[in-house]
Structures are given as structure tokens and as C-alpha cells.
From TrEMBL:
SUPFAM superfamilies: Hemopexin-like domain, Metalloproteases ('zincins'), catalytic domain. Residues 136-150 have a biased composition (Low complexity). Hemopexin repeats lie at residues 235-283, 286-331, 333-380, 381-428. This is Matrix metalloproteinase-14. GO terms for cellular component: extracellular matrix; extracellular space. Ca(2+) 4 binds at D243, D290, D385. Ca(2+) 1 binds at E53. Residues 151-161 have a biased composition (Basic residues).
Length: 473
């Protein structure tokens, strides 16, 4: 393709492995296949490919490997300025799909490139876009794209990692430099909470139930209003697991079934648990929430099944609920197990099953290097019930009736076995420790083997010092 009006050198055939000078290392075979930079200065327009992948030159080959044509075409789309598309089958769809013979560029991609460079019948030549990020076109196929700058292509989310994940970004790393040449495309900041939330200090107690044999009532104001009988599904705070936990306005909210508890600086509030719908305008028929977290703009996000809700204080924002896929999560995902803003690096994380995702709040989309296996959080079990970071800066994972404190600096649990949740979080008597805390044996083996290795290494060191001492004497 030729461009008129600007001289430009594009490095479109760089095959590298591991660290290769751009700050975005490859991870070996599998997962990240390639990445590209949008048009701009220096590395703008460059596309890099992981040399350790098995690249196939024949699109119709039955051999195991990755189509070089499919990946290169996708990355060159980024080099030309195209962002990702949410339209399945589109060349710019963020997940690797492969390409068959006699490939024809899908309509969504044609619309996008013609919006920037012009259609063939209207314009034969176009200027190379400058460093400013081009705006994604609006198409008749209802495609939506999310502004991105670094755009690695990876395999579908179900692919399990074949090697340990890399360590998270250094917390001291400048947030604005996470993506190269990322423009300030967000022109408006989200709304903030009022200083005082609209939550009541305690839930209102229900009216007493009245029985009457009166058969006539005034048409506009009944003498006695019927109230439903007390529910029998209220959880026992000392004998229950938790569905979700979050810090909201510097108070701990613990959710179970249709109910929630609030814990302030002086402990558990009186009058709880209360029904969730008394504090938040969620559907009356919900019987649980899967995960809750407070965003950095102070809005509250609820995950229920395949949908999520966003609240400003206790008022549902217009346009919600929305499906999880609008966040960039896979269609196959049934629910979120836990969500938190991790103080270690101020990033948002979602957990489900054996995997976790990192969410880009500025782009409102999942980052493209994800999901990853939860073995990054050493000692934490799969299929967690809840996760949150307390006001003391410590992270806690919950499963069953137990919890783990996580050491953010060592990237492993602070204690191998779970501790009972009820005494610590609900103020239940210490003797209320339960015997049914779920402890994941497969993760225990990993921890035990690591401990055994440390013990052996320590023994070798002590033996060496002993021999050395004998020789000296």
C-alpha cells in the first residue's frame, strides 16, 4: 500500500523473542502471538511477532501452528490505525480466529479502513494519519471498537497458560506510559459521589403484621397495610460463606443471598443483615450477587450472572444492566467470582474460575494480555467466593467459610491454611471455628513442595557451613 504526503519507515517484519527493546516482552509459545503500534513517531506503525511461535505459511494447512497471514493482517490493521472490533469474524476481532483460503476482508474492516483513508471510488491516495489516534467509524453492522494502543493478539481465553505468568507491573510505573503514544481521548471525567452517601444508617424495621376480619376498607387509604411474613432465608452470620465483599465509602459490605451486612469503624451495624434491595435499586427478584467493587470514580459495580450494574451512590445509572461481554469478557463466561481494585498497582481485577482478567478503566475494556491463570496469586484457591482489599491495604480472598490474607509484596498467601471468617469479620466467638473450611489440596501440594524445597536448600547451606567450620578449625 502506498501513501502520499509523508515519508514513513515502518518496521513490519520484526520477529523477536522475550524482551526485544519496546517494553512489551513476548512470553514464548502460546498466548501472546504479536503486537503492533498505532501510526505515530518512533515505533509508530511497527508490528512485532513472537519468534517462538509455530508459524504456518499455508492457511489451509492441517498442521499445528498459527497462521502467519491471519496474525500479520490483523497487526498491520493496527499499524494502519484500526482498533479492535467486537464483531465476530472481523479481521480486527481481538481473539485469534485463523483464516481460510480465498480470504475476503469482512465488511466491518472495510468500513473502518475506508473511513480513515477513503473508499476506492472516492479517493485513491490518503495521508498517513498523524500521531493522534483516529476515531473508529460507526458502521451499519453495529460494531463497537475500543480505543487501544498496544494490541497483542492472543488465543481464546479458554487456553490455559503453559508457563508461569509474569510479575505484575511495578506499582511505581507511570500509569500513562502503559501504552505507547496513548492520547488523552477521554474528554470527560466520570461523575463523583456526593460527600455523604444516601444510605440509611440502619435498615427500616418492617411493620408488625396485623390480622383483621374487616372486609371493607377506604378506597384510597387502607386502615391496615398487609406486610409479608418474616423470611426464613436470613443467613446466620456465624455459620455462612459469603457471596461478595467490598469496601464502599470506607465501610465493609458483606453480601450473602438477598442480604448484606455493614461493618464500620466500630464494628457490625445493628439491625443487619438487611435486604440488598433496601439500599440499592436492584431487581426485587434477585437472590444473590456474584461480586461487588467500588470503582476509582466512587461508582459501585454489581455483577449478577452474565450482567453487571453500575450505581452512583444507591441509584442505578441509566443504561444498566449491561452484559459482561461489553467489558471485553468472553461470551461463554457465566459469572464473575470476585472483583477488586488492587492497591498494589491501582488496577482493577476480575476473577472467575481458574482465571483472572485485568480491566483498563480508562478504555473501559479488558486488557489484551488476559486472561491469565490464578497461579500468579500463589496459594489462593480457584473458584473463590470473594476478594477485596481492606482499608489497611491488605488483600483478602474468601472461599467457603474461610479466608486467606495475601502478601502483595511476596505474591503469595500469608498463611497456607484458611482461617475461619466468622470470628474475625463478624465478631463471632473464637470457638465458632468450623471444620468445613474448603482447603484446596492441589494448591496445598504446590505450597508444600515449595516449603520442602526451601527446607532442603536450608539444610544444604547449614551442612556446607558446618564442613567449612571444621576445615577452618
Amino acid at each position: 500500500m502506498n501513501f502520499l504526503g509523508r515519508k514513513c519507515v515502518l518496521n513490519l517484519d520484526d520477529f523477536s523473542r522475550g524482551y526485544h527493546g519496546d517494553g512489551y516482552p513476548f512470553d514464548g509459545r502460546g498466548q501472546i502471538l504479536a503486537h503492533a503500534f498505532f501510526p505515530g513517531r518512533d515505533r509508530g506503525g511497527d508490528a512485532h511477532f513472537d519468534e517462538e511461535e509455530i508459524w504456518l505459511l499455508d492457511n489451509d494447512s492441517n498442521e499445528e501452528g498459527t497462521s502467519l497471514f491471519a496474525v500479520a493482517a490483523h497487526e498491520f490493521g493496527h499499524s494502519l490505525g484500526l482498533a479492535h472490533s467486537s464483531v465476530r469474524g472481523a479481521l480486527m476481532y481481538p481473539w485469534y480466529q485463523g483464516i481460510s483460503g480465498n480470504y475476503e476482508l469482512p465488511e466491518d474492516d472495510r468500513n473502518g479502513i475506508q473511513q480513515m483513508y477513503g473508499a476506492p471510488e472516492d479517493k485513491l491516495w490518503a495521508n498517513l494519519p498523524d500521531a493522534r489516534r483516529p476515531t473508529r467509524p460507526t458502521t451499519t453492522t453495529t460494531s463497537t471498537t475500543t480505543p487501544r494502543t498496544r494490541s497483542p493478539t492472543r488465543r481464546p481465553w479458554k487456553t490455559r497458560p503453559t508457563r508461569p505468568n509474569t510479575y505484575p507491573d511495578d506499582p511505581s510505573r507511570d500509569r500513562t506510559n502503559h501504552y505507547p503514544y496513548k492520547p488523552n481521548w477521554r474528554t470527560e471525567r466520570p461523575d463523583y459521589y456526593p460527600q455523604r452517601p444516601e444510605y440509611p444508617d440502619r435498615p427500616r424495621k418492617p411493620h408488625r403484621h396485623h390480622t383483621t376480619t374487616t372486609t371493607t376498607v377506604t378506597p384510597h387509604r387502607p386502615r391496615h397495610r398487609w406486610t409479608p411474613p418474616p423470611r426464613n432465608d436470613i443467613p446466620d452470620k456465624c455459620h455462612t460463606s459469603y457471596d461478595a465483599i467490598s469496601i464502599i465509602r470506607r465501610e465493609v459490605f458483606i453480601f450473602k443471598g438477598r442480604y448484606l451486612w455493614r461493618i464500620g469503624d466500630h464494628g457490625l451495624y445493628e439491625g443487619y443483615p438487611a435486604e440488598i434491595t433496601r439500599l440499592f435499586n436492584l431487581p426485587e427478584d434477585i437472590d444473590h450477587v456474584d461480586a461487588v467493587y467500588e470503582r476509582q470514580d466512587k461508582k459501585i459495580v454489581f455483577f449478577i450472572g452474565k450482567n453487571y450494574y453500575v450505581f452512583n451512590a444507591n441509584k442505578l445509572e441509566p443504561g444498566y444492566p449491561r452484559p459482561l461481554r461489553t467489558l471485553g469478557l468472553p461470551d461463554e463466561l457465566e459469572k464473575i467470582d470476585g472483583a477488586m481494585v488492587w492497591g498494589h498497582n491501582s488496577r482493577t481485577y476480575f476473577f472467575s474460575g481458574t482465571m483472572y482478567w485485568r480491566y483498563d478503566d480508562s478504555a473501559n475494556f479488558i486488557e489484551l494480555d488476559y486472561p491469565r491463570d490464578m497461579n500468579m496469586f500463589a496459594g489462593v484457591p480457584y473458584n473463590i467466593d470473594a476478594v477485596f482489599q481492606w482499608k489497611n491495604g491488605k488483600t483478602y480472598f474468601f472461599k467457603g467459610k474461610g479466608y486467606w490474607e495475601f502478601d502483595d509484596m511476596r505474591m503469595r498467601v500469608a498463611h497456607e491454611r484458611p482461617r475461619p471468617s466468622a470470628p474475625f469479620w463478624m465478631g463471632c466467638p473464637p470457638e465458632m471455628e468450623t471444620n468445613d473450611i474448603d482447603y484446596p489440596s492441589h494448591r496445598a501440594k504446590v505450597i508444600q513442595s515449595s516449603s520442602s524445597a526451601s527446607t532442603i536448600a536450608l539444610s544444604i547451606i547449614i551442612s556446607s557451613l558446618f564442613v567449612l567450620a571444621i576445615r577452618i578449625t
